Amino acid sequence: MLLSNTLKYLPSQVLAPLSQFLSIILWTYFGDEKLIGYITLITAFQELAMAMFVNWWMHYAMREYGTFKQQNNLPAFWQSSRSVIAISSVLMVIAALINLLLFIDQAASLTTCILVALYAMFRASNNFNAAIASLEQQIVRYSILTTVGPFVGLFIGVALLQQFGADPIYPLLGYVLGEMLASILAYRRSSASWRHWSVNRSTVLQALHYGFPMIGSALFAWLILQYPRYFIASSMSLEQAGLYAVGVGLGLRIASLITMMVTPAALPLLFKLVHEKGEPAAVAQLQQNLLLLLLVLLPGLVGLYAVMPVLIPLLVEQRFVDAALLVMPWALLAGGIEAIKNGYLNHYFFIRKRTGAILGYDAAMALTAVVLSYFLVSAMGIKGGAMASTMALALGITVIGLWLLLTKRVTLPYLSIIKMLLAVGVMYLLVQKVDAAQPLTSLLLKIGVGALSYIAVMLLLFRADVAGFIRQRQSGAG
């Protein structure tokens, strides 16, 4: 079921994180260290503002949208949503401007402030509407809302950089225009008139009870990955933050690019199962979701680590290569652990309505990351920042995962995971043996050998499952 939903959303699931990955690469050619540090501090904070001010309502809406629909109460839902998102957008704008003027650029121009405010507003609206579109399986609308803004916006910004020079205002303008275009293309009149703005008090209180812990959790989850970036900018320089952003950005975005191929369809499917078949069915599906996540995550991250020395010099401008190679391995590992946290552990607590637990372990990991950043950045520079995030995530996920297993709240498909690890190990060893005189030839050979060896070993180890799947498809077609 998840595989079917995943294939429907695959184009948008690839394009959205791909745009973020490409942005880091392109900015190394058309910008400089200071521009990258400036823009990534703005976009990183947008993720925090979205998580704190919008996601609490968005996750509640996704969790209970089926109930509103079954009760024929969607007009009231949309009226409450419109009011909540409007208020949340205002809060996002205020927070984004405070971040800009206090931590990034105290002398920011009025134009920059306006662009940051518009970016926050359109991001809030488009992300919420995309979440609802995924529940309704409106694939085209979802794809527009999630890809046009970041992808089209990126290339508008790069074109402006090429034409007018390395000024942060141009990437910002590109993103704003991209999000505006997405809003226009995906506009749809809702079942409730825009003239009616009202909030159902009991609904909002329920949403706060469900989602309020997620506000604190969002702050802590953001601190785990983003605090080192701010610490480096304040203790070292904006240029060093830019170098850090290249390596960390590539690592995290690659991990996101891999996991986004399977995870966006997972949570709506779980919520649908909760309403239709109950929580036990959703928890059972969660184990299948984990297997599909690991199926693409493990070979993707290990394969990238294996080809990284050849790949990075081909991707980024030469002066950024050393910093990227220094930081990126830790960022890849952090991105992989974060994917398991967001795509498996958090989903368990979402469907159990235990969002307070997410707040607890995110807070512990954030505190660990802050403390480790102070010591590791001071001792190792920008590499220490990536190490701080990775070590905090690894410690937290290990503890909460063991607790869930030992208390028998979840079970793991150990045999399948061991088979995947074996296939990944064989793949890594074979890739390391491949080499060629030309870097591009070497990269292509390594990728080819890695993909073929992983697929071959997986087919061998899972031959009974593959045969059963083929028979099932054949009997269904018949």
UniProtKB/TrEMBL annotation:
Q: Pfam families annotated for this entry?
A: Polysacc_synt_3
Claim: Transmembrane helix is one of the keywords in the record: yes
What is any one of the record's Gene Ontology cellular component terms?
Answer: plasma membrane
Q: Does the keyword Phosphoprotein apply?
A: no
Source taxon at top rank: Bacteria
Membrane topology per the record?
Answer: Multi-pass membrane protein
UniProt entry keywords in alphabetical sequence: Cell membrane, Membrane, Transmembrane, Transmembrane helix
Q: Which locations, inside or outside the cell, does it occupy?
A: Cell membrane
Q: Which InterPro entries match?
A: Poly_Biosynth_Transport
Major subcellular location class: membrane
Membrane-spanning intervals of the chain: 12-30, 36-62, 83-101, 107-122, 142-162, 168-187, 207-225, 245-270, 290-314, 320-337, 358-380, 386-405, 412-431, 443-462
The identity of this protein, by name, is Membrane protein involved in the export of O-antigen and teichoic acid
Organism, scientific name:
Rheinheimera pacifica
